[in-house]
Amino acid sequence: MRQLIRWMARLYPAAWRERYAAEFDALLEDMRPKWRDLFNVLLGALRMQMATRNYWKFVAFAGLAGALVAGVYALTIQDRYMSTAVVRFTFARLADSDRHGTLDRLARMEREVLSRTSLAALMERPALDLYAEDRKRIPLEDVVENMRKALRINLLEGPNWRATTFEISCMYPDRFKARAVVREVVAKFVEQINTTQRIQAPPAAVTLQLLDPANLPKQPIFPNRVVMVAVGLVGGVVLGLLAVLVRQKLQKA
Amino acid sequence: MSDPTILVLASLADGEKHGYAIMEDVQGFAGVRLGPGTLYGAITRLEQRGWIRPVDSDDRRRPYRITGAGREYLEAQLASLNQVVKTAMRRLKHA
């Protein structure tokens, strides 16, 4: 940390460094620097550049500050992995008039899989133990809602409604658990089909085909730290330019 | 009271101190932790205005001393602050 702050102190104007660098360095040796001191020194350097009217340097350093803030923030965000499976439901012995009813039945199955009871049971399963910290802190309804957001079941449109394809994906900080959830959801669909076929008429022959099994993600899908740092850099430059413009307007006034 | 300029002047009012000593002193009497950038920003401004001046020293830890002009400025600021405090206290009593 001390070394980082020393590097940051190089952003001060040359004249300032010539006069104060030695004693500033001595101060850093005496104190116990913290993360906030890094930003404090960065802000001090920006102010000093502005005060000495090194506007272009100020804008460049503002960009650097933005990138640094975004980078530190990006590091605090937990990685999330996404596992995906693709399944196809095939309905045999159905007439065109059964289309609406069949798609309705699929929608019911999806609602059942994503129901509060189903998701709560899934997250509380000891082998998965999903959102353990959240379940201690916030109401179960909210945790279930968060899980619904992380779990996607997308209908992939195709010309043949008798062969309906779904993409099932789950985003979670633990890549193994993300894959396990997708597998469980596929299993729940199979269970739903079996139940539906047992109790509902007409008995259409429904088969579920696993086109792509749940993958084990290698890289996190979120956050994209490079993009975040780039946004921070651009944001810093824009804010720096605005600050320079405001200062020049005030000076003219 | 969190103006670093006043805090540094108040710290130097009872004698010369170097950067770290000022930082510790301010933390002790005002409960404010001045970051290194804030502290040296204040020292730079105060020196440019002639309110403090560095004391010759062989050590890298260069001490600073308040000047006569700095003392006058501090007294004026504290008198103004004192007026605000007295008024606020009086109004609180009557409220």
Keywords summarizing the entry:
heterodimer; A: 253 residues; Alpha-Beta Plaits; 2 domains; 4 strands; 62% helix; elongated; B: mainly alpha; Arc Repressor Mutant, subunit A; 2 strands
Task: Give the gist of this structure.
The complex is a heterodimer of chains A (253) and B (95). By secondary structure, chain A is α+β, with helices and mostly antiparallel strands.
What is the subunit arrangement here? heterodimer
CATH topology of the largest domain in chain A, which one? Alpha-Beta Plaits
Helix content of chain A: 55-70%
Number of helices of chain B: 4
The Cα radius of gyration of chain B reads: 15 Å
What coarse outline of chain A follows from CA principal-axis ratios? elongated
Strand order of the largest sheet of chain A: 2-3-1-4
Number of domains of chain A: 2
Q: What does this molecule look like?
A:
The complex is a heterodimer of chains A (253) and B (95). Chain A contains 10 helices and 4 strands; from the N terminus they run ααααβααααββαβα. With 253 residues, chain A is of the alpha+beta class. In chain A, strands 2-3-1-4 form a 4-stranded antiparallel beta sheet. Chain A has 2 domains: 2-77 and 224-252, no CATH class; 81-212, EIF_2_alpha (Alpha-Beta Plaits, 2-Layer Sandwich). In chain A, helix 1 runs parallel beside helix 3 (35-51), helix 3 packs antiparallel against helix 4 (55-76) and helix 4 (55-76) runs antiparallel to helix 10. Chain A has helices at residues 2-9, 14-30, 35-51, 55-76, 99-113, 116-124, 132-137, 140-150, 175-199, 225-252; strands at residues 81-92, 151-156, 163-172, 205-212. By secondary structure, chain B is mostly helical. Chain B has one domain: Orthogonal Bundle (Arc Repressor Mutant, subunit A). Chain B is 64% helix and 6% strand. Chain B contains 4 helices and 2 strands. Chain B has a two-stranded antiparallel ribbon with strand order 1-2. In chain B, helix 1 crosses helix 3 (36-48). The two termini of chain B are 24 Å apart. The chains are: A alpha+beta (253), B mainly alpha (95). Chains A and B meet through helix 2 and helix 3 of A and helix 2 and helix 3 of B.
